[in-house]
DNA sequence: ATAGGGTTAG
């Protein structure tokens, strides 16, 4: 079939054994998923060294700037023993699914010879295979199954595109997307999302615009939430406004609080504080959730409006909404920028004691920044830490990173003393 | 059967 050949050609980099290693950068042992008792995917365990040129046809493959969850590590997410287990079940599943198909309720229909009904279960099984391989990072295997499928549904294509994007092959995913004859909104969203997450904002927005303007396809709320970070990255208030208008016109804004919250953030990042806070004010109170408040607090934080952020926090709390770690980060950042040291410390206390939230490096970063402006850095932080069993080592590392070797040294000493003090206590118990 | 992050320091 011509179509199949086209797909094959476009996937040839994936099917090229030389490119295999690229997908398993952390793999320290090689074995194939179906090698145990499958012959239809013949794998070699002795592959030539990676040849990046076979795949890097465009800079889009560059993983730099990608968010981490975008590039799960194959060897950590799927451990070798699990893989072997998986391999066995994959191979046996294949058989059992086929058996299942022959005993399924549609057996009579299949016997009647209706090709559509016969093909559907096969397509689904193979789609499942493509998905399984894609999720595990076995893109070559996924491509092979995909290529050899006699019949592919839109879901098959989407599943394969998902796999390619998940493992950083956005450019390749786009090529596959281009070959589709019937793209669903999921297909578009996937590729746009791939570009957004790899910081290819122009490509993301170009594709989004093509989808809406040329192909006349309506985005879903997921598509919009996907395109917002790209627009924020472009920093264009004009695009921000036009997308906002679109969302408003289609009713997204009214029916999905997530869209409104994301728009607040988008306006702020495009430098339009007034629009951001107006958008927030226009949300009916009963629809405001903690993310809405957090978003508006971060708008205040960006502009040194500490008082307003503190005030927002209090209103939010009174409304019975529970702040999370991000909420506290916003308010701490606002306190830091607004010079509200006492308030900032109070919020940090509240976070740890009242809400039992564990501060991370960003919270400490805010604290350091805040206290750094006021002087007295180390002792103040240690006061907090002593009360709440915080992480001295983390603190010490932060200070070392900031060039405060002397302070870091002192913290280590205190840590040692603390351990020395604690040990006898433990032995009594 | 397929997307599925509202908000994350400096």
From TrEMBL:
<dbReference type="InterPro" id="IPR002885">
    <property type="entry name" value="PPR_rpt"/>
</dbReference>
<dbReference type="Pfam" id="PF01535">
    <property type="entry name" value="PPR"/>
</dbReference>
<dbReference type="GO" id="GO:0003723">
    <property type="term" value="F:RNA binding"/>
</dbReference>
<keyword id="KW-0677">Repeat</keyword>
<dbReference type="Pfam" id="PF20431">
    <property type="entry name" value="E_motif"/>
</dbReference>
<feature type="repeat" description="PPR">
    <location>
        <begin position="324"/>
        <end position="354"/>
    </location>
</feature>
<feature type="compositionally biased region" description="Low complexity">
    <location>
        <begin position="52"/>
        <end position="63"/>
    </location>
</feature>
<protein>
    <recommendedName>
        <fullName>Pentatricopeptide repeat protein</fullName>
    </recommendedName>
</protein>
<dbReference type="InterPro" id="IPR046960">
    <property type="entry name" value="PPR_At4g14850-like_plant"/>
</dbReference>
<feature type="repeat" description="PPR">
    <location>
        <begin position="289"/>
        <end position="323"/>
    </location>
</feature>
<dbReference type="GO" id="GO:0009451">
    <property type="term" value="P:RNA modification"/>
</dbReference>
<feature type="compositionally biased region" description="Polar residues">
    <location>
        <begin position="87"/>
        <end position="96"/>
    </location>
</feature>
<dbReference type="InterPro" id="IPR011990">
    <property type="entry name" value="TPR-like_helical_dom_sf"/>
</dbReference>
<feature type="repeat" description="PPR">
    <location>
        <begin position="153"/>
        <end position="187"/>
    </location>
</feature>
<dbReference type="InterPro" id="IPR046848">
    <property type="entry name" value="E_motif"/>
</dbReference>
<dbReference type="Pfam" id="PF13041">
    <property type="entry name" value="PPR_2"/>
</dbReference>
<feature type="region of interest" description="Disordered">
    <location>
        <begin position="35"/>
        <end position="107"/>
    </location>
</feature>
